[in-house]
Amino acid sequence: MNQSPPAGDAVIDSVSVLGEESRRRMFAFVRRAGRPVTRDEAAASVGISRKLAAFHLDKLVDAGLLRSHYEAPGGTRRVGRRPKVYEPTDAQISLSIPDRRHELLAGLLLEAVLTEGADEHAADAALRVAERHGREMGEAERTRSRPGRLGAERGLTVCERVLDEQGYEPVRESSTELRLRNCPFHPLAARAPGLVCGMNHAFLAGFLEGLRVTGIQALLAPRPGECCVRFTPDGTEPDRPQATEPQPSGPTEP
User: Fold this and answer.
1) Closest Cα to residue 217, out of 237, 199, 198?
2) What are phi and psi of 142, to 5 degrees?
3) Which of 34, 130, 152, 222 could bond 176 through an S-S bridge, CB–CB 3.0 to 4.6 Å?
């Protein structure tokens, strides 16, 4: 599964680092430079002291926005200690509240197009790819946390934590039910609900399979403004509108 961008708090922390004006201007200067930049150069770019520039630059390194190493400007070796230089990382920051995962959806669709079989419909390829990536995410979590046997209650506890990291905003409605309050693929899901909701359902069902949770199913049960999937005990039927009782056709007694 492709690496997702930093989630939730990590993204907010990275953005908050750029809230200080001098730090933000130095970050822009380093990104535009096209080469490693020294502390003296960064300080001069915003008109502050070298010591204060070093403080701000190291904050940007801690946030994962810059990386540092020791190198002479232009790559030319000089006698004495080489200066510390800074350059951008490959990090891409996207902050959306509520969380959106359009890059994940785009990656799944691209892989589906590239791997579509000769006798396979495009939508079927998309469901296949989504299910496999969900299963791989579940397997990776199981390998990482080694939770042992996961029944319904413990399994949903693990699901709640992992899916919160993925932006689904899970809410535990009971010991064996988990509702996902946010759709990470909105508003694209509203434009093509059959495809996007189907892929989301396949992804989450694959996740349960990879995590090896017993007694729980991923149920396709859309609600306005929420994710189209909820986790319920095996055998639960989708919500259906309640039928109204037939009214008597003949005259009624007073």
Assistant:
1) 237
2) -65, -40
3) 152
